[in-house]
Design goal:
This protein is of the alpha/beta class. The chain has 10 helices and 17 strands.
């Protein structure tokens, strides 16, 4: 197994195999209920099959129940994506004895209720980011998950891009040296038109925030993963379109459709947010997240500069990494070099194709669910876990304070009462069913 899937030494390593937790042992199956059936629901469904069929997950995912609010749409998703049952009653499904794990792929305003119910029922949880819309509820989930000793993971899928994992290796091996700068952008343009409908993504009571929670959280997590913790932030935000036509029909991405006769409603989230941050290691970081970057479809870009070299990544060219190493620590004129991250010794690539054959966006989710399945099977805490969701939300809260007060704001960190290193105890017994 790749070291990228092994437990971090910062987490507990006590082993509790699937059989000891009452998980169905017919073919080492994990019986999953997924809440959500649109963009992320579709992607996660596909990812489970890739993790099983292409990556050979040791714990076989059984797509037991898919849940949604509209029964007709949920039944369609069940048939299209290979789930055994469809339901509109997520709470009953989550509490069922024949469900081992819960995948939360719905808007973030309901993450807390679903995750809390799943934890109380002793289920493993994979939750899309952000973990919740506020720090207090995110911390409560982390504490509850630690106390319950379930395997919890947050869906920061961009950690699972092979090129990003290679950046992690390069930095950890000291190849770029002391880090001076982090420069990160997440640029999209789907919201530029004022006629784009007022979907849940533009409503603060559902989404929590706009580009900040939807896009910038990915940059926050990647920076924590690659460079370290945030110390202080300053920030500004802007809403460019004040109102939009109300949604008439929701489509697969969750954006929605509208007509010219639609009533208009107010946009209550940011369209763009920019942040300047000090990192605890002394690096200076700048961030920009926007849905109004005309011409940029899904451009997550990062550059990290150190005294020995630099790395540069663009999600729109996700199989490539650009690197620069200062030879003999002297200035040189060779600039950046392009690496195609497809070799068998590159992260994750032992599961895929011959060198030079590229991967796609969906592969990051296959890597994500594979890591979750592997953690459950081996008894290790998944990474990134709910603690990483809390750390991200701490930075988001500090950014919100900095915007409101127009002052630089320190990032405050909290810790659970009990350590995730503590010995794992069994959750409630489950029947050994196929």
């Amino acid at each position: 197994t790749s070291r990228l899937y092994q437990c971090s030494t910062s987490f507990r390593t006590v082993q509790w195999r699937a059989s000891e937790r009452g998980i169905s042992m017919v073919g080492q199956q994990l019986r999953i209920a997924m809440i959500g059936h649109r963009f992320m629901g579709k992607m996660h469904s596909h990812a489970y099959r890739m993790a099983d069929q292409m990556m050979g997950a040791s714990l076989k995912p059984k797509l037991a129940v898919i849940c949604g609010r509209d029964l007709k749409a949920t039944e369609w998703a069940k048939e299209a994506w290979g789930w055994e049952e469809a339901s509109v009653d997520w709470k009953t499904v989550v509490e069922r004895e024949d469900i081992d794990a819960v995948d939360i792929a719905v808007p973030s305003d309901v993450h807390y209720d679903i995750a809390a119910t799943a934890i109380q029922a002793g289920k493993h949880v994979l939750c899309e980011k952000p973990l919740t819309n506020d720090l207090a509820s995110a911390y409560e989930l982390w504490q509850a998950a630690c106390d319950a000793h379930i395997v919890h993971q947050v869906g920061f899928n961009y950690r699972r891009v092979p090129a990003v994992a290679l950046i992690k290796r390069v930095i950890d091996e000291g190849k770029i040296g002391r880090i001076f700068h982090v420069r990160a952008q997440y640029l999209q343009d789907w919201a530029v038109s004022p006629e784009v409908p007022l979907s849940w993504r533009f409503r603060k009571e559902v989404a929590g925030s706009g580009a900040l929670g939807d896009l910038l959280t990915h940059l926050i997590d990647l920076t924590r993963y690659l460079v370290g913790e945030f110390s202080q932030v300053s920030a500004m935000e802007q809403t460019f379109v004040a109102d939009r036509p109300e949604v008439q029909e929701v489509i697969g991405t969750g954006i929605g459709t509208a007509t010219s006769r639609s009533r208009r409603g107010p946009v209550t989230v940011d369209d763009a947010t920019v942040v300047i941050a000090h990192m605890t290691n002394g690096a200076l970081a700048t961030f920009e997240a926007t849905r109004f970057a005309s011409g940029r479809k899904n451009a997550l870009r990062m550059e990290i500069h150190g005294d020995k070299g630099a790395v540069a990544f663009d999600l729109e060219r996700l199989n490539e990494l650009r690197v620069h190493f200062r030879r003999h620590l002297e200035p040189c004129d060779d600039g950046f070099q392009r690496i195609l991250v497809t070799r068998p010794d590159h992260p994750f690539m032992e599961h895929w194709w011959p060198d030079g054959h590229i991967l796609g966006y969906d592969s990051t989710f296959a890597h994500e669910v594979y890591a979750w399945l592997s953690a459950i099977d081996t008894g290790c805490q998944a990474d990134p876990g709910f603690g990483d969701g809390v750390r991200c939300q701490e930075v988001v809260e500090a950014i919100g304070t900095a915007i409101t007060t127009e002052k630089a704001t320190l990032v405050q960190r909290r810790h659970p009462r009990t350590s995730e290193k503590s010995k794992t105890t069994s959750v409630r017994e489950r029947p050994h069913q196929a």
